[in-house]
């Protein structure tokens, strides 16, 4: 299978490209600079420029485009960038497909668990309604842009949860504190984070490429966990205490609305579509995920 990836240089894209290649697929990356090799194609998504020939002959397109949600404070300009860096590239890809006699058969366009907003303890399957807030609006516009692909293209929209990795990603700031023994739960810790490990994200995308599934897909582990449980599991795997709770008012003071939507909102997502289709997680439990994050995969059970 020939797979074109937009956003291949990021955390998810790097892992995904390796997973696809290891599975025997050809991977072509769309880059915003000049192409440096045969497996790169230059494009300018900000200006809506992509030679449709870049997608000719591709079996699938994977869209991971988007500026980092938690990288910078949410000024008005930054929020506009969060929207435009997702919607613009998605529209550019869809427009290029319309110009082909035979567009790629599959389009997997990333979305996020933020689609559901702050849903408290409600169990969220793919049929659950959208929530409110900046992240919800971003995801809705992102998904609407993806839905403009030509009829007949199999559209898959993974609503990906909090991705656990050993470096960077959602744990990029929390993990170093936990390793030093000075981390702890955020807020009251009872908010649910729909977590998933980086290897399982890449494996799930590979599964979706070949499964025939279409529509929204909750991409998270089958075992849910609130922040208290997540932090406790990571701390046990690292053999460190995690008692220094950061109160919600402090988070709101320091991070403002970024704290409310990224750290304090609750999405108790259930990966109903993936589970029904027979996807098998490498790290289905918090204990297994924490061992992997800590580099102790295969070690004895956590104590």
Counted by DSSP, the helix tally is 10
Query: H/E series, N to C?
Result: EHEEEHEEEHEEHEHEHHHEHH
Number of domain units: 1
Q: What gyration radius follows from the Cα positions, in whole Å?
A: 19 Å
Q: How would you classify the helix and strand content by structural class? A: alpha/beta
Average pLDDT rating: 91
CATH architecture: 3-Layer(aba) Sandwich
Quick one: CATH superfamily? NAD(P)-binding Rossmann-like Domain
Q: Give the CA-based shape.
A: globular
- Strand fraction equals 15-25%
CATH class: Alpha Beta
CATH topology: Rossmann fold
Please bin the fraction of helical residues.
Answer: 25-40%
Textual characterization of the structure:
With 303 residues, the protein is of the alpha/beta class. It has one domain (2-293): Rossmann fold (3-Layer(aba) Sandwich). The protein has 10 helices and 12 strands. Helix 4 (174-179) links the parallel strand 9 and strand 10. The longest helix is centred in the first third of the chain and has 23 residues, at 76-98.
List keywords for this structure.
single chain, 303 residues, alpha/beta, Rossmann fold, two-stranded parallel ribbon, 15% strand, globular, disordered C terminus
Write the topology of this structure.
Layout: E1 2-6, H1 11-22, E2 26-31, E3 40-42, E4 60-63, H2 76-98, E5 106-109, E6 111-112, E7 123-124, H3 134-146, E8 154-160, E9 162-164, H4 174-179, E10 195-197, H5 198-211, E11 215-219, H6 227-238, H7 248-255, H8 257-264, E12 268-269, H9 272-277, H10 286-293
Parallel strand pairs: 1-2, 1-4, 2-3, 4-5, 5-8, 6-8, 7-12, 8-11, 9-10
């Amino acid at each position: 299978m020939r797979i074109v990836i937009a956003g291949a240089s990021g955390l998810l894209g790097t892992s995904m490209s390796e997973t696809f290649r290891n599975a025997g697929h050809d991977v072509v990356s769309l880059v915003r600079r000049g192409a440096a090799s045969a497996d790169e194609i230059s494009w300018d998504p900000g200006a809506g420029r992509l030679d449709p020939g870049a997608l000719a002959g591709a079996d699938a397109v994977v869209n991971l485009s988007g500026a980092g949600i938690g990288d910078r404070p949410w000024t008005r300009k930054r929020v506009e960038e969060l929207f435009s860096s997702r919607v613009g590239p998605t529209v550019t890809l869809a427009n290029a497909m319309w110009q082909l006699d035979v567009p790629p058969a599959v389009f997997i366009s990333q979305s996020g668990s933020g689609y559901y907003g702050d849903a408290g303890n409600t169990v969220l399957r793919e049929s659950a309604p959208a929530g409110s807030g900046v992240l919800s609006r971003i995801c809705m516009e992102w998904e609407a842009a993806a839905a403009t692909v030509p009829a007949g293209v199999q559209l898959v929209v993974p609503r990906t949860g909090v991705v656990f990795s050993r470096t960077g990603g959602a744990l990029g700031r929390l993990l170093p504190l936990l390793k030093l023994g000075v981390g702890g739960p955020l807020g009251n810790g009872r908010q649910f984070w729909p977590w998933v490990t980086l290897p399982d994200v890449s494996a799930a995308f590979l599964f979706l490429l070949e499964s025939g599934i279409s529509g929204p897909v909750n991409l998270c582990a089958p075992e849910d966990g609130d922040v208290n449980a997540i932090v406790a599991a990571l701390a046990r795997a690292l053999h460190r205490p995690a008692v220094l709770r950061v109160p919600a008012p402090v988070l709101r003071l320091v991070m403002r609305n970024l704290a409310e939507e990224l750290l304090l909102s609750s999405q108790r997502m259930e990966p109903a579509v993936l589970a029904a289709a027979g996807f098998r997680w490498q790290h289905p439990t918090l204990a297994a995920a924490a061992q992997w994050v800590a580099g102790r995969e295969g070690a004895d059970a956590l104590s």
